[in-house]
Write a structure and sequence with these properties.
Shape of chain B: elongated
Oligomer: heterodimer
Number of helices of chain B: 6
Number of strands of chain A: 0
Helix content of chain B: 55-70%
Number of domains of chain B: 1
Number of strands of chain B: 0
Shape of chain A: elongated
Strand content of chain B: under 5%
Order of helices and strands of chain B: HHHHHH
Distance between the termini of chain B: 43 Å
Strand content of chain A: under 5%
């Protein structure tokens, strides 16, 4: 079985370029994300794009196919994540600027966001390394790892977006 | 509350509050019962995460002065401590199982990646992330009196989520 998957994946590689999958299946996610108005609706967007990819591609249900469809969705979320981070950072910098006029010692939102985001990145990577390791010796472990990346990246994206909405 | 106050553990914070004439520990009306009942109701498929904080909320209602800043911090501190114990118990058991399995796989000369070091690494990075994230939550308050409860709440929720995550991993093992 493993050998078959391997052979298929080698033959299929040109068609399976992630950028093609992003181009073809990505708009579903982009639209869902743009239309979602709350946290629950945003979370419901997770997995639809990779699901369509698995159902729509001939090898979408193989281990390699599932992993590649999932990674292509992660790539789209990653773009959203960077965008939300930039926007939230700009928002925090503006709050810091106002704060600095009266209490400069408390104008550290932007700095704290940067540190939290760095720490999150390392935490995500080690979490998904663990998920991969728990998948055992078979190629199935790739699915544990790629699924973890997609889920964690999407959840953090939604959090970063909401940091500008529920402000303390 | 000053930012360097964030580094105190729940116990140290509680002691600090007691010293300052806050809610005395023996007066706290706290039990994990309502959180546990909520977890039981959430079933195997549902997420138990919304149950985190229920016991702290009830403690705030039932304790004299529980709604004050100090009362809130003390009640959340009590729930934080309960979650912290659960987190440690789940981690210890998971680590023992993963070490045993790593050894078994190594004896078979398997190519499977090692689990125990990955678990340890993840948990260490989680601690760094928890602290950075809760600092960020605290920074939103601009030094106001809401800082203490907000940071304590962040520690309680994050520790609760991580405890549930490790417990689920253990249950799926």
């Amino acid at each position: 079985m493993k050998l078959i998957v391997f052979v298929l994946s080698v033959i299929a590689t040109p068609l399976w370029a992630e950028e093609n999958l992003v181009k073809y299946y990505g708009p579903v996610l982009t639209q869902c994300y743009a239309n979602a108005t709350d946290s629950a609706a945003l979370k419901d967007c997770i997995g639809a794009m990779s699901g369509n990819c698995m159902a729509g591609e001939e090898q979408g249900e193989t281990t390699y196919g599932v992993a590649t469809c999932t990674s292509s969705e992660t790539e789209v979320w990653d773009g959203f994540l960077n965008d939300e981070y930039r926007q939230t950072m700009a928002y925090m910098k503006a709050l810091d600027k106002d704060e600095a006029e009266i209490f400069p010692e408390f104008a550290n939102r932007a700095d704290a966001l940067k540190k939290a985001q760095r720490a999150w990145l390392v935490f995500r990577d080690t979490s998904c390394d663990l998920a991969y390791a728990q998948g055992g010796a078979g190629s199935i472990r790739q699915l544990y790892g790629t699924g973890c990346f997609m889920q964690m990246t999407a959840e953090r994206t939604i959090e970063l977006k909401q940091m500008r909405e529920v402000e303390g | 509350m000053k930012r360097n106050g964030l580094k105190f553990t729940a116990n140290a914070l509680l002691a600090l509050l007691l010293g300052a004439g806050g809610v005395a520990a023996q007066d706290l009306v706290f039990s994990m019962q309502t959180t546990d009942a909520c977890i039981a109701d959430s079933g195997h498929e549902g997420s138990a995460e919304p149950c985190i904080g229920e016991s702290a909320n009830l403690c705030m209602e039932r304790t004299d002065g529980g709604q004050s800043t100090m009362g809130m911090v003390a009640c959340m501190g009590a729930e934080l401590e309960a979650w912290d114990q659960r987190l440690n118990a789940a981690y210890t058991e998971l680590m023992a199982r993963e070490k045993a399995e790593d050894k078994e796989m190594a004896d078979l000369e398997s190519s499977a990646p090692k689990q125990a070091p990955a678990l340890q690494d993840m948990q260490r990075k989680w601690i760094a992330y928890r602290d950075a994230r809760c600092d960020y939550i605290g920074a939103q308050w601009g030094g106001g009196s809401g800082t203490g409860p907000a940071v304590q709440g962040c520690h309680m929720v994050m520790t609760g989520k991580q405890a549930l995550f490790l417990q689920r991993m253990l249950a799926d093992y």
